[in-house]
Design goal:
Layout lengths: L2 H4 L2 H43 L20
């Protein structure tokens, strides 16, 4: 007799529910990972586009200072 035949219908149903939940979780994580990857590629494309747009850099520097009040 196989293990599948020995399992009760309630146990099989519960196993399907757990597998279904795990499947949904893995699918959600994969989708989120794809969105993060796409966003990172768009940011990278924007950065590269900014570098090659032909605008002179001029070697400007930016200095940020804060006073004691945090302004």
């Amino acid at each position: 007799m196989s293990a599948h035949a020995v399992m009760s219908s309630a146990h099989r149903s519960r196993a399907r529910t757990v597998n279904s939940g795990l499947s949904r979780t893995v699918n959600a994580v994969a989708t989120l990972g794809s969105l993060v990857t796409l966003s990172a590629l768009l940011v990278l494309a924007g950065a590269v586009g900014g570098l090659v747009d032909g605008a002179p850099t001029g070697h400007e520097t930016v200095t940020v200072t804060f006073d004691s009040a945090g302004h």
